[in-house]
Amino acid sequence: MATPRERLVEWLRDAHAAEEQAQTVLRRTASQIEDHQEFCAGLERHGERSGEQADRLKQCLEDLGEGTSLLKELTGQITAFGQTLSGYVVGDEPVKAVLATATMAHMEVTSYRILAVTAKAAQETDIARTCDILLAEEVDFADWLDQQAPIVTQEYLAREQGAAREMSNAAS
């Protein structure tokens, strides 16, 4: 059985790889759906924040005398690339982007809750404090995404209806 410290190291590595992946996915997604400026700007901002969060997680690992996982990072980057490519295939990219990023953000919220509890169990109070800060940042992002979902969906539907009217008028 693993100790709380061993689990903490393992799960910090997972979270670090997830933040590296999030940084890539958010930036690439923002570049794909430029028609939704506020949403794209928010994705870009959180993409930058994900890089900062990855740095803080790496520091937590270093404080424990550990390093990140190259395998987990590579797997995450491959997954990020695949997720980004899938956006080029579907026609409703903005709506799918809201769904995917909200899912990712809520997963990270839960991950940081788990990390904070595990750090406390391992008596790593500084790491627990860092995880609580990261948790608050992810809750803010998840809440913002929840607010963006109806906005982006309405904008998308309005554009789609406008394009359908233009096609109908052109055919007449």
Automatic annotation (TrEMBL):
In terms of superkingdom, the source organism counts as Bacteria
Matching Gene3D superfamilies: 1.20.1260.10
What is this protein identified as? Answer: DUF892 family protein
Matching Pfam families: DUF892
Please tell me the species this chain comes from: Sphingosinicella rhizophila
Extract the InterPro entries matched here: DUF892_YciF-like (IPR010287), Ferritin-like (IPR012347), Ferritin-like_SF (IPR009078)
